[in-house]
UniProtKB/TrEMBL annotation:
Organism listed in the record: Erythrobacter aureus
Regions crossing the membrane: none
Classification of source organism: Bacteria, Pseudomonadati, Pseudomonadota, Alphaproteobacteria, Sphingomonadales
InterPro entries in UniProt: G_CP_dom, P-loop_NTPase, Ribosome_biogen_GTPase_RsgA, RsgA_GTPase_dom
Protein name (Swiss-Prot/TrEMBL): Small ribosomal subunit biogenesis GTPase RsgA
Residues the record lists as binding GTP: T156, K157, S158, D159, G208, S209, S210, G211, V212, G213, K214, S215, T216
UniProt cofactor note: Binds 1 zinc ion per subunit.
Amino acid sequence: MTKDYSVFLPPRNAGAPIQRQPTVLETLGWQPFFSQQVSADELSRTPPVRIVEIHRSALHVVGDNVDRTIVPIEGAAVGDWIMLNPERPGASRILARKSLIKRRAPGTDRRLQLIAANIETIFVVSSCNQDFNIARLERYIAIAFEADIAPVIVLTKSDLVDETDNYLAKAQAISDLVPVVALDARGDEPKTKLGPWCKPGQTVAFLGSSGVGKSTLTNALAGSDAIATQPIREDDAKGRHTTTRRQLHLIPGGCVVLDTPGMRELQLTDAALGIDTVFADLHALASHCRFKDCQHVSEPGCAVLEAIELGDIEEARLTRWRKLKAEEAFNNTSLAERRSKDKEFGKMVRRIKKAKFDQGDAS
């Protein structure tokens, strides 16, 4: 019997709501954005599946009556949709992404690391304790803005402090565009307070340090204890790694959740717009400086420095803005140099192969 794939294609009358149960693919996050990239013929030959987990030597993909591991696909990320080639899984096509979270890889290796794809909302999670760090929150939010993903700050362990107003005020001051939610990660609060962003078919991600409650929040949304959790250390409020790899979890009757390990290092790259959005006040002030290339250090006519003198802007905020912009520019240059060297190396390999082929042909 030929399977009917028409429900996965864009509806002819997009304005009329469809009263039906969501398909398996739709519960996994399949949307018109993806169906517009494929034809009915391609759907029948290569069914769409979503990458829910990446192992060292395999991908775990899930779709309609599909739940299997396949060989790695170059350039694939958790959350990607691919058109699964049954005969040659490694040649499966990756569909264009709605969004992509990325960073410069940790350490000295100058390469780009893909974190996750096709996310609608990023919950930036921080605890109401020593883990709370404005600069770290700004980094995560800049990544979200750059990827065109809606960021939400989630303050956990609010039940362990007498007063959360101070943490709320500091988090709310980061950006007028970012909602802030304080909650106890255990119990019903995550479902009620995060519910508006966790509708069926949506994909959300919890990002933050180890031990802030990311896995606990995922368990709370799912109403189970399927994901292992560990408490933070009492001496310094630092967490232990519980989640060891990025993985998508389907919440019954709800959204798809990306649970991630705590990231100790989050180097920004290709995030200029995201940084300027987080620091929209400073970016706007900079446009009024006398010199277009003003560095906001000691230049005459600097509108940013004038705002600091008047007490309208904290100097620490300017310092964090400068640091992120300098880091982003440096990483962009480093990655560009790495790509250039890789390109030259590839050319050299092709020349060597061609020379060997020519020698063999001549003999």
